[in-house]
Amino acid sequence: TECTYKVANKLLSIGILVGLIMAGLASSIPRFLPQILTNNAIVQTAVRPLATPLFLGALLLAPVAVCEGVLLSQRELGFLAGVYAISTALLPPVLFRIKRSSEGTVGMIWNAFA
Prior knowledge:
The chain has helices at 2-32, 41-47, 51-73, 77-100, 106-113. The protein is flat. Helices cover 82% and strands 0% of the residues. By secondary structure, it is an all-alpha fold. The mean pLDDT is 87.
C-alpha cells in the first residue's frame, strides 16, 4: 500500500543518515587517529587505507538492515532466502581468490565485504 511505501522510504532515509554518521565516525579513527588503535607506527600506516572500505561497509549497513526489515515485515521470505543463499555461495570463492592472488591485500578483502 502507499502507507507502507511511505514508511519504508522514511525508514530508508533515516537508515542512510544514520549509516553516513556512523561510517564517518568509524572510518575517521583509522584514517586520522590510528594511534587510538595502536602505538605501532607500522600498524598505524597499515590501517589508514582500510578507512575507505570501512566507510563503505558501515555506510551500507544501516540501509541494508532497513531494507531487510521491510522485506521481513512484508513476508518476502523466499526472496530473502535466495539473497542469503547467493551471498553465502559467492563470497567464499571471492575471498579465496583474493587470498591466492599474489597481489591480494587486506583492503581487497574489506572491499569484498563492503
